[in-house]
Amino acid sequence: MAFKEKLLQRAISKKPRGLNATQIIAIAFAVIILLGTLLLMLPWASRSGVSCGFHPALFTATSATCVTGLVLYDTWSQWSGFGQIVIISLIQIGGLGFMSVASLVVFLLRRKVGLKQRMVMAQALSLNDMDGVVRLQKWVIFGSLSVEAVAALILTLRFLPEYGFATALKWGVFHSISAFCNAGFDIFGCITPGASLMEFNSDPVVLLTLGALVIIGGLGFLVWEEVARIHKFKKLSVYTRLVLVTTLALLLTGTVCFAVLEWNNPATIGNMSVGDKLLNSFFQSVTVRTAGFAAVDQAGLTEAGKGLSIALMLVGGSSGSTAGGVKTVTMMVLLLFIWARARGKSSVCVFKRTIASGHVMNAMTIVSLLIGLAVFGSIFICATSPVSFTDALYESVSALATVGLTASVTTKLSLAAQLLMIVFMYFGRVGVLTISLGFLMGSEAEERFRYAQTDVLIG
């Protein structure tokens, strides 16, 4: 066994005296949200010069840090230039993770990264071990900034002829960061407040650029690094292959289904040309899986369209990415398990490999927990706000999966429902396992005995 692995095992097995990695991440996100709230409460953060108050600032700071995109006010109309800088900074920190920002400072100062820092990095990037974590962290930082810079340049050149250099640059940088981090915040409100990308729903440059950013950001940092290093699909790890196959399947299926369900709906894509219908169906398939940009009116979706959106929102992106949801591989493992059991098999296999039963149980736990929370949230919203159950479920899943899309009901929610959405956004970003393992299972009791087995009727 390598010396580094022995160190890791010793660090994990030894009873911690302070905070562990998961607790550090959860607390750090809470501190960042609180700091963002205080900054957004300042009078000069609001366009009117009057403080917005604690509750709106907390909701916005949580949504930005948790890269969700749900808002109580139009971002451009409510927030001044200073407020918008605070929001985009929170999005960048929340999207890449506070450890990425802290690591950038360490790398620039050429300091050594200690064992504790490596453990926190691994946890923040959703890695099972610390092997190559520093190299991956460097890839995350500089790769992310490079992708954002290229996209910002493309968007700036697109907006330049019509809106001038200052506005084009501002829009390019802001929306590049927001899209890559899957946040969904926009500052197009100076054209039409609250319209998100609807003013550009026939612009392939804007939609395809932002869509590409959302996809890249949602694939996961580990997947980028492996694809860049290994160019043959068959040589990639099982996890990376599952991510790529599942993502492609979701994009294609979502595009086709949205096109079929909304083709003749005048409230969404019904009045568009064939090309624009296909473009917007594709973008809806992309953005609904945690980005939060709206190129069509989400409230105008058919009931079937809203149902499809809820399903895709629940899946989300991939582990170790800027996206939320239960994650692509988690859902795929659960589906593979169901398929295996339906055929009478006890093991789950994919790409000639068997998935450990522990991973299957974790997938079932995460999916069940998020579905349960989504249903509870929907019932709570309906009980406290004048909202239909479908729209309440849409809002609840959107917050939990850190998507940020809304059927135009966020501002209609009661104070209690809005507070629940704040909790859901935090819970969805920090991660179900990060919270449960970090705070509830920090000192897991050893099973000293087991009860005798019994039989129960299932199904």
Verbal overview:
The structure is a single chain. The N terminus is likely disordered. It is built from 19 helices and 2 strands. It has a two-stranded antiparallel sheet with strand order 1-2. Helix 17 packs parallel to helix 18. By secondary structure, it is mostly helical. A hairpin with a 2-residue loop joins strand 1 and strand 2. 46% of the residues are buried. The chain is globular and about 70 Å long. The protein has one domain. The longest helix is centred in the first third of the chain and has 31 residues.
Which H/E pattern describes the elements?
HHHHHHHHHHHHHHHEEHHHH
Number of helical stretches of at least 4 residues: 19
Q: Report strand %.
A: under 5%
The biggest sheet amounts to: 2 strands, antiparallel
Distance between the termini: 46 Å
Helix/sheet category? mainly alpha
Number of domains: 1
Q: Give the averaged pLDDT, no decimals.
A: 84
The global form is globular
Q: Roughly how much helix do the residues carry, as a percent range?
A: 55-70%
Notable characteristics:
single chain, mainly alpha, about 0% strand, two-stranded antiparallel sheet, about 450 residues, globular, 2 strands, 19 helices
What's this model, at a glance?
The protein has one domain (19-435).
Present the secondary structure layout.
Elements: H1 3-13, H2 21-40, H3 54-65, H4 75-78, H5 81-96, H6 98-108, H7 115-124, H8 133-163, H9 165-180, H10 204-219, H11 221-229, H12 238-262, H13 274-287, H14 303-315, H15 328-342, E1 348-350, E2 353-355, H16 357-384, H17 389-400, H18 415-430, H19 432-440
Antiparallel strand pairs: 1-2
Helix pairs in contact: 2-3, 2-5, 2-7, 2-19, 3-5, 3-18, 5-6, 5-9, 6-8, 8-9, 8-10, 9-10, 10-13, 12-13, 12-14, 14-17, 15-16, 16-17, 16-18, 17-18
